Amino acid sequence: MSHFTKGDKLSKLIHTNHFLLPVINRFGIRLGFKDKTVYDICIEKGINEDFFLAIVNTYTNKDYFPETDLMSFSPSLIIEYLRKTHQYYFEYLFPEVERRLARVLIGCEGDCDDLQLVKSFYEKYKEELSNHIVEEEETVFPYVLAITKAHENNTAIDAKYKGYSIKSFEQEHTHVDQKIYDLKSIVIKYLKPGYDDNDCNSFLFSVFQFERDLLDHARIEDVILTPKIMEIEKLVKHG
Amino acid sequence: MDRRIIIIHPSTIVRKGLHAILRDSFPDDFLLLNSIHDLQDYSSLNKLDLILLVNDSFAVEKESYFKKLKDLENNIFSLEICQDKSETESIIGLYDASTDIVKKVKNCIEAQEEKSNELSELSDREQDVLKLVALGFQNKEIAEKLFISIHTVISHRKNITEKLGIKSISGLTVYAILNKLIDTKNIDPSTLI
């Protein structure tokens, strides 16, 4: 699969993969961009073009791996982007999934035990994912910013980060991704009929979208953030 | 599951020839490799249905590669490529008619699909294990209760997960409650999840 380049029109990106809409929003790009190319819009909005392309390509093509010379942007940009995706989960995706699930529950005939179970499972999942996000925001991101700063200023990193490494944060993801897959499996394969089809589909669509965004989020950390920080870790001394 | 067709043969003519014959009947992505050892460069092959057409000169080495691919949660379907014409279903001969080659690959895929459909029901023993998993017991406790080894418990759990498409313990618990494998009259189901 080919990937997007700076000469591509932004409208082409969205026609190819409309899931990119919330992604470009995170860069402050809003609809109505006419025939502007990636290059035009990046200049206009002051966005690092390599970083923008790395993000939209990772999101669109799961095998995409940015080449080293396209990775010259600062890790602080990645953190800023990841924070915006977290914000998007809390402000939009979680509430949206919940609104849609609530609608299925309202329309449900009979005792709805099945759906109540799905709801409990979802709530448990949300709790775990939220904890994971908080952990990233409070531990991983400050570490990344600290080591980046130490690297850029050619100083030693604060002693409180002794023993930290970006690798040690990695495992958490698979666990969190797995549960949203289970949520889908349960609804798709094992829920008994008795609800409104359209409401239930709409709930599932939102779960699919959430999963997609989460997987992408994890991929950005795995293929962009982690390799960059591992390089920096080799160069920075601990104070 | 996504599918990849992988043709492994030292001859470019054979690789490209097989690709040309198969690509009209199979819309999948193809991967053409010179040697079985090239597989080690493809760590992105995971959770896929892999159809491997492998030259018989790699018969010895292929098993260890298949095992590695299976560990990456791929399903393996394999056909051998031999020098002559072949009457055998699972072997493609260099002098086979192109229609026969297409048919052999189709049969191989269908056979595997039937096998994976059979898998969907849980056996009685797997249900026993699932009940205990759902109630929150650890592998060691499950082994003791059912008088089986921990190794057997682990193997049952792996099969359960494959059949149901559910990995997490709380997901399995939801399945068990939905299917009335555990009695929730006296407990609040949400405390188990």
Oligomer: heterodimer
* Computed CA radius of gyration of chain B, to the nearest angstrom: 22 Å
The major β-sheet of chain B equals:
5 strands, parallel
Shape of chain B: elongated
- How do the helices and strands follow one another from N- to C-terminus of chain A? HHHHHHHH
From the spread of the alpha carbons, the general shape of chain A counts as: globular
The low-pLDDT segments of chain A are none
Protein chains sharing the most extensive interface: A-B, 22 and 16 residues
Helical region count of chain A? 8
Q: Please identify the structural class of chain A as seen in this structure.
A: mainly alpha
Spatial strand order of the main sheet of chain B? 2-1-3-4-5
Structure description:
The complex is a heterodimer of chains A (239) and B (193). With 239 residues, chain A is an all-alpha fold. Chain A contains 8 helices and no strands. In chain A, helix 5 (75-107) packs antiparallel against helix 8. The mean pLDDT of chain A is 90. In chain B, helix 4 (124-134) packs across helix 6, helix 4 (124-134) packs across helix 7 (169-178) and helix 5 crosses helix 6. In chain B, 49% of the residues lie in helices and 15% in strands. In chain B, strand 3 (49-55), helix 2 and strand 4 form a beta-alpha-beta unit. Chain B has a 5-stranded parallel sheet with strand order 2-1-3-4-5.
Describe the structure concisely for a colleague.
Chain A is built from eight helices and no strands. Chain A has 239 residues and is an all-alpha fold. The mean pLDDT of chain A is 90.
SSE arrangement:
The complex is a heterodimer of chains A (239) and B (193).
Chain A: H1 10-16, H2 20-25, H3 38-45, H4 49-60, H5 75-107, H6 113-153, H7 172-190, H8 197-235
Chain B: E1 3-8, H1 12-23, E2 29-33, E3 49-55, H2 59-71, E4 75-82, E5 91-93, H3 98-118, H4 124-134, H5 139-146, H6 150-164, H7 169-178, H8 189-192
Parallel strand pairs in B: 1-2, 1-3, 3-4, 4-5
Helix pairs in contact in B: 4-6, 4-7, 5-6
